[in-house]
Amino acid sequence: CLCAIVSFAIWSRMIDRIWSGSSLLYLILLPLSWLYGLVSTLIRLSYRCGLRKSWRAPVPVVIVGNLTVGGNGKTPIVIWLVEQLQQRGYQVGVVSRGYGGKSAVYPLVLSQNTSPREAGDEPVLIYQRTGAPVAIAPKRSDAIQALLQQHQL
Q: Which residues sit opposite 135 in a β-bridge?
């Protein structure tokens, strides 16, 4: 379609101008990138100096994620990975933030009665497909601790 080609050309030219530094948007975003870098460095230093505490899970953790949400195939990868580990005899649990779910309480360890409305559709799908325990919470460490309290992993 001609519209798609023209649209691609416009976006491509705009991205080239931003990337090369010959755009007003580049000049606006540059100081913001410096600020982001400074904040990231300060957060990292606060952990190293002991001002902030990190939590280390007592079991191995594998993270399947990306910088973007939706449509990247994370759920099928998680299901495949869980099934592969189960076939090799590992006791596996899955932790999710439960995007799209509206649970009244967190952490929530899924059961047969947990609805997608409560936990989000992807955690429920993973639970149903694999039978592995799944916990959701905005803070991953809370979900891991809930799984470890209820399951031998």
A: 95, 109
pLDDT digits 0-9 by tens, 65-96: 875 666 778 899 999 999 999 999 999 999 99
- Locate tokens 């497909």: which residue? 129
CB under 8 Å to 92, separation ≥6 — which residues? 82, 85, 86, 130, 132, 153
* pTM of the predicted model as reported, rounded to 2 decimal places: 0.70
| Cα dihedral 130, 139, 148, 71 in deg (nearest 10) | 10
- The rounded distance, in Å, linking the Cα atoms of 60 and 136 is 18
CB atoms within 10 A of CB 60: 7
Q: CB under 8 Å to 59, separation ≥6 — which residues? A: 144, 148, 153
